[in-house]
Every structure is written in C-alpha cells, then in structure tokens.
Design brief:
Blueprint (H helix, E strand, L loop, with lengths): L3 E8 L3 H18 L11 E10 L3 H11 L6 E11 L3 E6 L3 H17 L6 H4 L4 E5 L8 H11 L3 E5 L1 E8 L2 E9 L2 H4 L3
Antiparallel strand pairs: 1-2, 1-7, 3-4, 3-6, 4-5, 7-8
Length: 188
C-alpha cells in the first residue's frame, strides 16, 4: 500500500568525490562514534525533506523533469571545510550563481506544486556537504574538526542531474536521478 513518504532534492557528487566524502564520514564514526551523517550519501541539499504521496512519485519526477528541461550542467566547487557553530562540520560549497538559481527555482516549484512553505534553510541557503552533525557532541567537536581538516579536499565537478532521495527504513537512498535539460544532454 502506498503512503506518505519523506523525500528531498539534492546534487550528488560523482562517485570518486562521493567515496572520498563517505570515507571521511566512516573514519569519523570509527574514531569518535559520530555516525548520523552516514544515514544519507554525501550530497548538496537543494530542498530540505518534505512529505509526499508515494503513489504520485512519477508525477513529481515528471514535473521536476519539466522544470529542469532548460537547465544546463554547471560546475560545482568544493572549497574545503566549514562549520555551523560547534554542532555541524561540512565540506563548504561555492554558492555560485548557477547553484543559487537552481535552488531558487526549486524553492518556487515546491511552493507552487507541493504547497510547501519557505523554510529558514530556503531563505538562508548555504550549500554544503555535511560530514558530521546531530550526534556530534561539543566536547569531541575540536578533534573531529581536526580530522576533517586533515582529510578534506578542494575540487570541482560538473553537476548534470538532480537526485530525488527517499527515506527508506531510516536511511536516505538515491531514489531517482533527474537529468538536466535534454537540450543539453544530446537526447531528443
């Protein structure tokens, strides 16, 4: 039976970068017991989790595909390490014009098509890939941050698709990739 499920929209880096970020998260878990960030693959959130009717997933995917029809692939730059206070450690992402434009388009889409209200994260968008949060305690924060700084990297990749992630059995899974515009991918 289909039901209301949780989803979110993100850019997921290519395999090589994804694996590097995941290996940092695994090392954080092994050395400090901080594991909550492992409940989702490394990603750059564009729309925070929302509830949606599972029976209408294909309709949602189709509408997002229409929105992305004229979206050209764009470059995403990882700048190094950042933090939100002493509770979140992440790989900082350059807030490029392209990233801001797609995030704003998705925010407007979700408001119109899904009746979602603007959240604080929609208005104060700071692109990043979380490596440790939620179960990261203030007393272990400096040591975890030191480890992340030693393992962090700067790089750039081309974003050519949006990923719809779905919460299944307590974990976020890569549910469906939605390519940016067919006019840019060579498809007719």
């Amino acid at each position: 039976m289909k039901s209301i499920q949780k989803y979110f929209l993100a850019i997921v880096p290519p395999t090589e970068i994804l694996e590097r970020a995941e290996s940092i998260k695994v090392e954080i878990r092994e050395k400090f017991g901080v594991k909550y960030a492992l409940k989702s693959p490394a990603h750059i959130t564009l729309k925070m989790p929302f509830n949606y009717n599972e029976a209408k997933e294909e309709i949602l995917i189709g509408k997002i595909g229409e929105l992305l029809k004229q979206q050209a692939p764009f470059s995403v730059r990882i700048l190094g390490v950042g933090t939100f206070g002493n509770r979140v450690i992440f790989m900082d992402i350059d807030k490029s014009k392209e990233l801001e434009t797609i995030q704003n388009a998705l925010k407007a889409f979700c408001k119109k098509e899904l009746n979602l209200v603007d959240e604080l994260s929609d208005r104060n968008y700071h692109p990043h890939m979380t490596l440790a949060f939620k179960d990261l305690k203030p007393n272990s924060f400096p040591d975890v941050l030191e480890l992340v700084r030693k393992r962090s990297f700067k790089t750039e990749f081309s974003a050519a698709e949006l990923v719809l992630l779905k919460r299944i059995e307590g974990r976020w899974v890569l549910f469906r990739s939605i390519p940016f515009g067919e006019i840019f991918s060579g498809k007719n």
